[in-house]
Amino acid sequence: MSSGQNSGGLMSSAGLVRYFDAEDRNAIRLDPKSIVAFGLLFGVGILVLNSVAF
Amino acid sequence: MGWKEAAEPVLTRMPAVARPEGHVPFRRKLAWTAGILVMYFFLTNVTMFGLETQTASGDFYGQFRSILAGSAGSILQLGIGPIVTASIVLQLLGGADLLGLDTNDPRDQILYQGLQKLLVVVMICLTGLPMVFAGGFLPADQQVAQSLGVGVGGVKTIIFAQMFVGGILILFMDEIVSKWGVGSGVGLFIIAGVSQQLVAGLFSWSSLGGASGFFPTWIGIITGAVDIGSPLSPGGLSDIFLGQGQLLALFTTLLIFGIVVYAESVRVEIPLSHARVKGARGRFPVKLIYASVLPMILVRALQANIQFLGQILNNWTGLPAWLGQYSQGQVTGGLFYYLAPIQSRGDWMWFLGLTSQEPAQILVRVLVDLTFMVVGGAIFAVFWVETTGMGPESTAQQIQNSGMQIPGFRRNPQVIEKVMERYIPQVTIIGGALVGLLAVAANMLGTIGQVSGTGLLLTVSITYKLYEEIAEEQLMEMHPMMRQMFGN
Predict the structure, then answer these.
(1) Does residue B226 sit within a domain?
(2) Disulfide: which of B17, B226, B273, B452 matches B220 by Cβ 3.0-4.6 Å?
């Protein structure tokens, strides 16, 4: 069955947060790769700090 | 004018993960999902800088950890807690129709998304600040404070900053999985945590440092390395079923698996036929646990937040005895005791001497927990269905838009809605109450690896949904035509 013109942004499994297709032109868009890169660098940074401090 | 106009400049500018342009191949979706999962596990293993490591102060989330993900003392200390709490607020506001947002209107969709993010950020602060600054849940390291020269307050600020970044990272990781991967990040993190505990509960052996798992214990029992009483004596039987043998826990775990997978297939099917294409038929399934497992996490998180409030107030100012009495971080009396959910057998099996509470007190606590879960489960399930567009009105509109109709009825959204109203609300309430009952029962009987009943329920049903989604994805990969049919 087709979901038709449903623009409600179908819920993905277990999504507590809903994401719609609509986006504002002013919104800041982040590249997923840069988020992953930031997360990894942040984690490694904390690890380094921990090992320096003790 | 209204709050919408006032908040618009802020809400529309909330940073968001860019959407993929065009179709993302299934393999790449899997790669994104796996990548985020690896990143999640990595981050749960990074201890926050400036935290005093000598004293194991225990997990602030305690037994709630299995549904709130993350890990104690790591930069993902908060887990999905803020997301869940923000979601509770949104559900309550949306369910009572106080927001005045129409989720079919693109303008309101943007506002809704922005509001979600803003609420998560607020919740990160509301849960994080008291956790760090009130009471000694996350003690700052004196040595670091001295060597940096910023004092204990400064180190606490650094700890909070790391926690804050971790909370924001979880939010964006969820968004990446939702937009670029399979399923959702929240679901992924819950199953990751619970599965880890389950595997540890089954296979972990004592030389790893933790408690011995189910299989190693049984190998020990069979070879005589683990000493239990004779299976014919009451003591031995109790050891086998309740103690080290954990047979009851295994039974409960398997039962929950079975019930959830079975209940997934229990549904009322409403026949549909295409208005113009003769012979094109379909069915609209109204599932028994249609929408009810996920709202459960909201009920549990509400209980969790009540308990955090008790702990923080107790550490901060001390509580009068009628409100709460605490010993070693555990609530033992007062109002907060009765509001605490039953988490394991140790909380209620007074006849085995597992707890020193009076049976009458325990009974009240079990009844409060049961009422909370059954009634709360039903209420949140109804709100969930309404706010996520699975209610009678929106499904009627969807069916209408897809060009289908219910045979024997006029082709009109109002008519379809009438038919849907006969099923969806009833099924939702029954499903919500049933899931609540199951979660309490599973907690009381205990599960393998101490994953809570709710954690297990969530994991099984999220995995099932994930499986369905993957199957659908593969179908679309094989037949590009299907993609158009699914409106992708």
Answers:
(1) no
(2) B226
Residues in A closer than 8 angstroms to B50, CB to CB, are: 53
Give me the helices (H) in B317-391, please.
335-339, 359-387
Spatial separation of the C-alpha atoms in residues B372 and A37, rounded to whole Å: 42
Q: Are B118 and A27 in contact (CB under 8 A)?
A: no
CB spacing of B282 vs A1 below 8 angstroms: yes
Same-domain pairing of B286 and B430: yes
Which of B238, B195, B245, B257 is closest to B215 using CA atoms?
B245
> Is B353 in the same domain as B476?
yes
CA B403 – CA B27 distance, rounded (Å)? 32
Specify which of A20-24, B241-245, B255-259, B286-290 reaches the highest per-range mean pLDDT.
B255-259
Distances (CA, A) of B269 to B376, B464, B465: 26, 19, 18
**DSSP assignment of B89-149, as one string?**
HHHHHHHTT-S---TTSHHHHHHHHHHHHHHHHHHHHHHHHHHHHSSSSSPBPHHHHHHHT
B333 contact A CB<8A: no
Minimum distance, in Å, between the CA of residue A41 and any CA atom of chain B:
10
The ipTM estimated for the assembled molecules is 0.83
User: Nearest Cα to B173, choosing from B11, B35, B26?
Assistant: B35
B47 vs A: CB within 8 A: yes
What does the DSSP 8-state code read for residue B297?
H
* Highest mean pLDDT (candidates B211-220, B316-325, B371-380, B395-404): B371-380
> pLDDT tens digits for chain A (54 residues)?
333 333 333 444 446 888 887 777 778 899 999 999 999 999 999 999 988 876
β-partners of residue B405 are B273
Q: What pLDDT band is residue B159 in, cutting at 50, 70 and 90?
A: very high
Query: A39 at the B interface (CB within 8 A)?
Result: yes
| Same domain assignment for residues B172 and B302 | no
Whether residue B268 sits in one domain with residue B193: no
**Paired sense of beta strands B404-405 and B267-274, if any:** antiparallel
Range of the domain at B77: 25-203
**Total count of domains within chain B:** 2
Q: Do A28 and B15 touch (CB under 8 A)?
A: yes
pLDDT in tens, B299-309: 999 999 999 89
Retrieve residue B444's tokens. Answer: 């009381």
pLDDT reading at B54 higher than 60: no
* Chain A interface includes B87 (CB < 8 A): yes
Closest listed residue to residue B397, CA positions, set B424, B415, B384, B422: B415
B297 touches chain A (CB under 8 A): yes
Residue B440 buriedness (CB in 10 A; 0-12 / 13-18 / 19+): buried
